[in-house]
Specification:
33% of the residues lie in helices and 21% in strands. The structure holds S-adenosyl-L-homocysteine. GO terms for molecular function: protein-arginine omega-N symmetric methyltransferase activity.
Length: 411
C-alpha cells in the first residue's frame, strides 16, 4: 500500500509536477513589497513571508478577490466541499458531547470558514438535534472577500434557525462564557498560520530566514534561505517552547508556529468557559501529525504543488500542523480541557458512521449512489486525505476515551 506520498500533498487532482520556467513570471505585488523590505532591513522570517503572501491587506492570497481559491477552478478542494456528510459527521460529534453535559445554550465558533460550507452543514445538525438551543454563530475570518461569501451562504441559515451570525478578526475577540456551551471548529485553518523555521546549531537554536537570491534580477525564484548568523531571543524561546525540542540533535530543523500555540490556547479558554469543568468542545482537522515537521512548507496553485517562492501572493501557502504542540498549548487547563487523538480522518469518519450514511444517501440518490460513494471514498482514501488529515478532539465530559478517538490498531 502506498501509505505516504511524501509531505507534499494538499489535494492535487493531478500528479504534482514542478514547472521548469524558461521565462520567469513578472514580479507580483507582494513579491515587490517583500523584495524592497529585504533590501531595506535584511532577511525576513518564514512567518513574515507567509503573513505577507496570505494576508497582505489587499494583495494577499486570501484577501485578493481575483484569486478563485476553492473548487475545481481554484487552487485546491477541501473536504467540506466534497460532500456535506463531512460537516454533518463533525456536527454529530459536537452534539454528542453537548448532550452529555448540562445542555446549555449553544454558540458555534469557526476559525477560517472559507466559503461557509462546513458551517452550513454543522449548523443544520446542531439546530436539528439541539432544537432551539443554538443561539449564535461566530466566524473568525480576516478576509473581506471570504466574509462576503460566508455571509451570502450563512445568513439564510441563521434566519432559518433564529440564531445570530457575527465575524471576528481574531479568536481573542470572543469572550469566554460560563452561560453558554461553546463548540469550536477549525478545518484547514492551522496550516495557514505563519510559523518560524529554526535549526539547532552548536550555538543553540538559530532561525532560518529568507533572503534575496544572489542575483535577483536574473535568478528565479527570487529568494533563497539563509541561516541567521546567531541565535536570537525569538529563536531561543521557540526552541524552548516544547520539552520535545530539548533533546533534538544538532542539525535538527523544525517548523514552529507560536501563533498556532496562542490560537489553541484561546480555544482552550473558550472551552473552559470560566468554569472548572469543560463547557464546550471542539474539533481541529488538518494535515499533519503528532510531531514537529522540518520542511513541510509548500505552495499550491491550480491543484499542483509549486515552489514556495513562486508568484508570492498568488499561490496558497500551507504547512503541516504539529498536533502535539496544539495539545501542549491547552495542557495548563488540566482536566477542564482534555484532548482526544489526533486520529486519522479515515478513522474519525468511519468511527462516526460514514459508511452507513453513505448507503442511506445512496438509496435516495438518482445515480444509484455513484457520486456519494466516490466522494466518501476520497475522504477516507488511505493513500490520500484519509491518512494525511488528522482530527483532534477537545473538551467534552466523558472521562476516559471519547469515541471515536480510540488508539488505532496496526497503524
Ligand atoms: N475551512 C475552510 C477554508 C480553509 S482555507 C475549508 O476547509 O474549506 C483557510 C481559511 O482561513 C480562509 O477562510 C482564510 O481566509 C482564513 N484565514 C487564514 N489565515 C487567517 C488568520 N490569520 N485569521 C483568520 N482567518 C484566517
Amino acid at each position: 500500500m502506498l501509505r505516504f506520498r511524501g509531505p507534499h500533498l494538499r489535494w492535487p487532482t493531478r500528479a504534482p509536477t514542478r514547472r521548469l520556467l524558461s521565462t520567469p513570471p513578472p514580479v507580483t505585488v507582494v513579491e515587490k513589497i517583500i523584495m524592497d523590505g529585504i533590501k531595506a532591513t535584511g532577511p525576513i522570517s518564514f512567518s513574515t513571508y507567509m503573513q505577507m503572501c496570505l494576508s497582505h491587506p489587499t494583495a494577499g492570497y486570501y484577501m485578493n478577490p481575483k484569486n478563485p481559491i476553492f473548487g475545481s477552478k481554484g487552487d485546491f478542494v477541501t473536504s467540506p466541499e466534497i460532500t456535506s456528510l463531512f460537516g454533518e459527521l463533525l456536527g454529530v460529534w459536537l452534539m454528542s458531547q453537548w448532550m452529555q453535559g448540562p445542555q446549555l445554550p449553544i454558540r458555534i465558533v469557526e476559525l477560517g470558514p472559507g466559503r461557509g460550507t462546513l458551517m452550513q452543514d454543522v449548523v443544520r445538525v446542531v439546530a436539528r438535534f439541539g432544537k432551539d438551543k443554538l443561539k449564535s454563530v461566530h466566524l473568525v475570518e480576516t478576509s473581506p472577500t471570504l466574509r462576503a461569501l460566508q455571509e451570502a451562504r450563512l445568513e439564510p441559515e441563521a434566519g432559518k434557525y433564529n440564531c445570530t451570525l457575527g465575524w471576528h478578526d481574531s479568536i481573542g475577540d470572543i469572550a469566554p462564557s460560563a452561560e453558554e456551551y461553546t463548540m469550536v471548529v477549525a478545518h484547514e485553518f492551522f496550516d495557514a498560520l505563519p510559523f518560524h523555521t529554526i535549526q539547532k546549531t552548536e550555538q543553540g537554536w538559530q532561525e532560518i530566514l529568507i533572503a534575496l537570491a544572489e542575483s535577483s534580477e536574473e535568478t528565479y525564484p527570487r529568494f533563497r534561505y539563509v541561516l541567521s548568523p546567531q541565535a536570537s531571543a525569538a529563536s531561543t524561546l521557540l526552541g524552548f517552547s516544547s520539552s520535545r525540542f530539548k533533546d533534538m540533535p544538532v542539525g535538527s530543523r523544525i517548523e514552529v508556529s507560536p501563533i498556532a500555540f496562542k490560537t489553541m490556547h484561546a480555544i482552550g479558554e473558550l472551552i473552559q468557559g470560566n468554569s472548572t469543568e469543560s463547557l464546550g468542545c471542539g474539533l481541529v482537522v488538518d494535515y499533519g501529525a503528532d510531531r514537529a515537521f522540518d520542511q513541510s512548507f509548500r505552495a499550491f496553485k491550480k491543484h499542483e504543488i509549486a515552489d514556495i517562492f513562486h508568484e508570492p501572493g498568488e499561490c496558497d501557502l500551507t504547512v503541516n500542523v504539529d498536533f502535539a504542540y496544539l495539545r501542549e498549548a491547552v495542557g495548563d487547563f488540566g482536566p477542564a480541557v482534555p484532548t482526544h487523538g489526533p486520529i486519522s480522518q479515515a478513522a474519525f469518519l468511519e468511527g462516526m458512521g460514514l459508511s452507513m450514511r453513505v448507503e442511506a444517501a445512496a438509496q435516495r440518490s438518482e445515480d444509484g449512489g455513484v457520486a456519494i460513494r466516490e466522494a466518501a471514498k476520497r475522504l477516507v482514501d488511505p493513500s490520500g486525505m484519509g491518512e494525511e488529515y488528522k482530527v483532534l478532539g477537545i473538551g467534552g465530559h466523558a472521562s476516559g476515551a471519547v469515541w471515536p478517538f480510540v488508539p488505532e490498531t496496526g497503524a
